[in-house]
Design a protein that fits this description.
- The complex is a heterodimer of chains A (114) and B (108).
- Chain A has 114 residues and is mainly β.
- Helix content of chain A is 0%, strand content 49%.
- Chain A starts with a strand and ends with a strand.
- By secondary structure, chain B is mainly beta.
- Helices cover 0% and strands 44% of the residues of chain B.
- In chain B, strands 2, 5, 6, 9, 10 and 11 form a 6-stranded mixed beta sheet that branches. A 3-stranded antiparallel beta sheet of chain B has the order 3-8-7, with no helix packed on it. Chain B has a two-stranded antiparallel ribbon with strand order 1-4.
- Chain B is globular and about 40 Å long.
- Classes of the chains: A mainly beta (114), B mainly beta (108).
- At the A-B interface, strand 4, strand 5, strand 9 and strand 10 of A face strand 6 and strand 10 of B.
């Protein structure tokens, strides 16, 4: 099991472009979480998804950000019209369906907006 | 809303010295508390959780509900313990609330 895979590891975008971050959960995991880490800060929850469903998006900015976890393929975090303040490390975690189990993290995608 | 506070950004100790990384939380209910660790160039990984009451790599953490604390302790630090440590809690909705992290430097 390769673990949670995120790509790309580093992404550079100009202001106004779109950023697409991908997360492939561990095999057998049906729950995906996205977190954002700004410089000198801890990880902040953004969104929690199960296959084809958004369960909790209370941490997601209301505009420009969206997430999906389709029946087939990776989970995608999409940021439209990026601004400098979107520069951060974005981490994905996955867990199996059973409650109170450990979430496993990917290595993150570092987004830089220039 | 829940909150996790790690007051120290950096903790530097010598090898063999005791270590205590502080974590305080605020939540009116009964949260589940965790410590995560991130070694250099590696992904975030779970170190321990309060419900399992384990000792992992010599680290322990006791949940003190009266003081709303979950400090991480190790009696004798090793150089390989140098890493970023994050305290986190969940309230049953599964997503984690993290503190801002403490960098532990263990000097030889």
């Amino acid at each position: 099991n390769a673990g949670v895979m995120q790509n790309p590891r580093h992404l550079v975008r100009r202001r106004g472009q779109e950023a697409r971050l991908r997360c492939s959960p561990m095999k057998g995991h049906s729950h995906v979480y996205w977190y954002r880490q700004l410089p000198e800060e801890g990880l902040k929850f953004m969104v929690y998804l199960q296959k084809e469903n958004i369960i909790d998006e209370s941490g997601m900015p209301k505009e420009r950000f969206s997430a999906e976890f389709p029946k087939e393929g990776p989970s995608i975090l999409r940021i439209q019209q990026v601004v400098r303040g979107d520069s951060a490390a974005y981490f994905c975690a996955s867990s199996p369906i059973v409650e109170n189990t450990e979430a496993f993290f990917g290595q993150g995608t570092r987004l830089t907006v220039v | 809303a829940q909150r996790v506070t790690q007051p120290e950004k950096l903790l530097s100790v010598f090898k063999g010295a005791p270590v205590e990384l502080k974590c305080n939380y605020s939540y009116s209910g009964s949260p589940e508390l965790f410590w995560y660790v991130q070694y250099s160039r590696q992904r975030l990984q779970l170190l321990l959780r309060h419900i399992s009451r384990e000792s992992i790599k010599g680290f322990t953490a006791d949940l003190n509900k009266g003081e709303t604390s979950f400090h991480l302790k190790k009696p004798f630090a090793q150089e390989e313990d140098s890493a970023m440590y994050y305290c986190a809690l969940t309230t049953g909705r599964r997503a984690l609330t993290f503190g801002s992290g403490t960098r532990l430097q263990v000097q030889p």
